[in-house]
Design brief:
The chain has about 150 residues and is an alpha+beta fold. The chain is built from three helices and six strands; from the N terminus they run H-H-E-E-H-E-E-E-E. A six-stranded mixed sheet has the order 2-1-6-5-4-3. Helix 1 runs antiparallel to helix 2. The longest helix has about 50 residues.
Length: about 150
């Protein structure tokens, strides 16, 4: 191979390497922003639960959101809004989030965590620690929660 061809291939390789590093750096920055945004939403959800703030969930939950609780029941966004409208039978007394981890896959983010709570739900007292998974999708420039599920922690 001539020196000219070698130099050309080295130049192409260096250009491709630098371009790849630039893309990777941009993706890492975007992922860090997404992790921060979804982490904030998870922590804000705890504040909303404690305050009985249904407006938070009206904004953050996708219209077709579904959530499964640790008792084996599925809920829709409409179900959740009805529960917030009845604070006499649905109230969070205490709640603490721990072990939060957020993974980002393009316009999708998955948050896993441990949640310890004491609440009244549909007139029944519940106190437990669960492990949960929330799935978010970036829609119209905003992160929306599209699905949630919890299981009793061991």
């Amino acid at each position: 191979m001539s020196a000219k061809k070698s130099a050309m291939w080295i130049s192409i390789f260096v250009f491709a390497l630098l371009a790849g590093l630039g893309v990777m750096r941009a993706q890492t920055g975007a992922n860090a922003d997404a992790v921060a945004a979804v982490s904030k939403l998870e922590n804000d959800a705890i504040k909303a639960d404690l305050a009985g703030d249904k407006t938070f969930y009206e904004k953050v939950l996708a219209e077709d959101w579904t959530g499964g609780d640790s008792e084996g029941t599925w809920y829709t966004k409409a179900d959740l809004m009805k529960m917030f409208a009845d604070p006499q039978h649905n109230k969070t007394n205490s709640e603490k989030l721990s072990d939060l981890k957020v993974r980002v896959y393009g316009s999708t983010a998955v948050a896993t965590y441990k949640d310890t709570y004491d609440m009244m739900m549909m007139g029944q007292h519940r106190a437990s620690t669960v492990i949960g998974t929330d799935t978010f999708s970036k829609m119209g420039g905003e992160w929306k929660e599209v699905a949630s599920h919890a299981s009793v922690a061991k």
